[in-house]
Amino acid sequence: MNIYTRTGDEGQTGIIGGRVEKDDIRVEAYGTVDELNCFVGQARSLLIDVKYADLSIDLLHIQHELFDCGHDLALAKLELHPVKVFAAMIDHLEALIDKYDAETEDLQRFILPGGSMISSSLHICRTVCRRAERNVVALARLQEINPEVRRYLNRLSDLFFTIARVGNLREDIKDVEYERSALVFRTKTK
């Protein structure tokens, strides 16, 4: 099998059920999801300590689900192919957010991205995820998409924020509050 096909040399690429220009918003959307998946893989590579085994397993699962998101975004016509992203996947992300959030202290102000390498890497995942979500929103204005992909990415960015905080906590590094931040978060109910 050859890696190169030469079919994209004129600026078009194949999607599931057709061909589009390489700068099409659909390609931008699933391309950004692919970029996010790469950053998640990079974050996983930092989780070598046993204290991160749970995070590593969860991030690996998310990498597979990001491929599912890319699949659904690459569908030229939803009615011709089954989708792979479902509401149950969003429910699972919410359960992970709740699980990891229970580890962290209450947060009242915005925090600066950073701290440990793990936390910094997960904050990058969060921001790339938000960009992917914006691209999916733009695509949905123009073409039909599986709306669960948009919901998935929205919730996934919340998970990245939460586990970035867990990364600092497990490294015994305190999150740095944005010094001019108003009180923006509610206290957790236990």
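the 2nd protein, sequnce then structure:
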Amino acid sequence: MSETSTAAPAQSGLPQDVSCLIVDDDQAFRTRLGRAMEKRGFQPTLAESVSEAKSAIRQSAPAFAVVDLRLDDGDGIDIVNFLHEQRADARAVILTGYGNITTAVAAVKAGAIDYLAKPADADDVEKALLAKAGSLPEPPENPMSADRVRWEHIQRVYELCNHNVSETARRLGMHRRTLQRILAKRAPQ
């Protein structure tokens, strides 16, 4: 079930309604981000699935949402759409570990104000949520390197192919041995 934190006093610069739904199926990340957002003056509600998120939105539609793109029981874009049906002025940010242009466009069309790569820093999430309408948020202080983005993408495709090296190599258009060498290395910084 969803976890709700206690109310924190709003900090200067924050709007009056600081309710924030955080949806991610990675419990450790969800909890860390919830604590970090609470320290920044938000009132986070945590959910790990599409169904939990929709239930939390039905109970009280938040002013802000931070939603993982891919969840075990569905798509984060569905949550953003549902949130905007319940509260048109809500501001949502989509997080993803394996983004591409198509999903970024879909997220923006659904009403997300930004699309951030994981692991997202709480400062970047806050900046995106509080960016003025029509303005672009500042670029992240510590963006992932191109090597790290590539590595994350390869890991995701490998996972989706049920750890089948040959199938992953075929889908990525690379030689199987090249893929095996990449998989054997540690993640770049």
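The longest helix spans residues 146-160. Residues 3-130 form a domain with the Rossmann fold fold (CATH 3.40.50.2300).
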